[in-house]
Automatic annotation (TrEMBL):
The protein, known as: ElaA protein
Organism: Jeotgalicoccus coquinae
Source lineage: Bacteria, Bacillati, Bacillota, Bacilli, Bacillales
InterPro entries registered for this protein in UniProt: Acyl_CoA_acyltransferase (IPR016181), GNAT_dom (IPR000182)
Gene3D superfamilies according to UniProt: 3.40.630.30
Domain N-acetyltransferase: 5-147
Alphabetical list of Pfam families matching this protein: Acetyltransf_10
Length: 149
């Protein structure tokens, strides 16, 4: 079941599961040693799915004046390859379309996921750069045509 919650709406067990999932993927699996708990969770909108009490898909949304950032997009490794990542992105983008229809969506993507994000309409807006020894690129999903902006 999909959930959309602000920080103060999260149950402690949900927060623990979210942080555990993020740690298991970003820190341990990808060996990216960075401050995952960065102070932004309190301002974020958290989208996640869980079954049997375990969070298996997660992303957070950070809102700014002219855009939103879709961050910490992750799916448990046991759920990869079955369309779960696509379901997460579809759900998150549908939410953004309803709640922030005029704001562009930004994402920092690992370069190997470029085609995945492009399939949703994201376009690369930076050169490839390295974070924690992994190639990344900035991508954007433009919400309004240039004529309307």
């Amino acid at each position: 079941m999909w959930h959309i919650k602000k920080y103060d709406q999260l149950q402690l067990t949900e927060l623990e599961q979210i942080l555990k999932l993020r740690q298991s993927i970003f820190i341990l699996e990808q060996e990216s040693f960075f401050e995952d708990i960065d102070g932004n969770d309190q301002e974020a909108i958290h989208i996640f799915n869980k079954e049997n009490g375990k969070v298996w898909a997660y992303t957070r949304i950070l809102e700014y004046e002219n855009h939103v950032i879709l961050a910490r997009v992750t799916v448990d490794k046991d759920k990869r390859g079955d369309g779960s990542g696509r379901k997460l992105l579809e759900y998150a983008l549908n939410y953004l379309e309803d709640e922030f229809p005029t704001k562009d969506v930004h994402i920092v993507a690992m370069s190997y996921l470029r085609n995945f994000y492009q399939s949703f309409g994201f376009k690369t807006i930076s050169e490839v750069y390295y974070m924690d020894n992994d190639p990344h690129e900035d991508m954007i999903l433009t919400r309004l045509s240039d004529e309307v902006k």
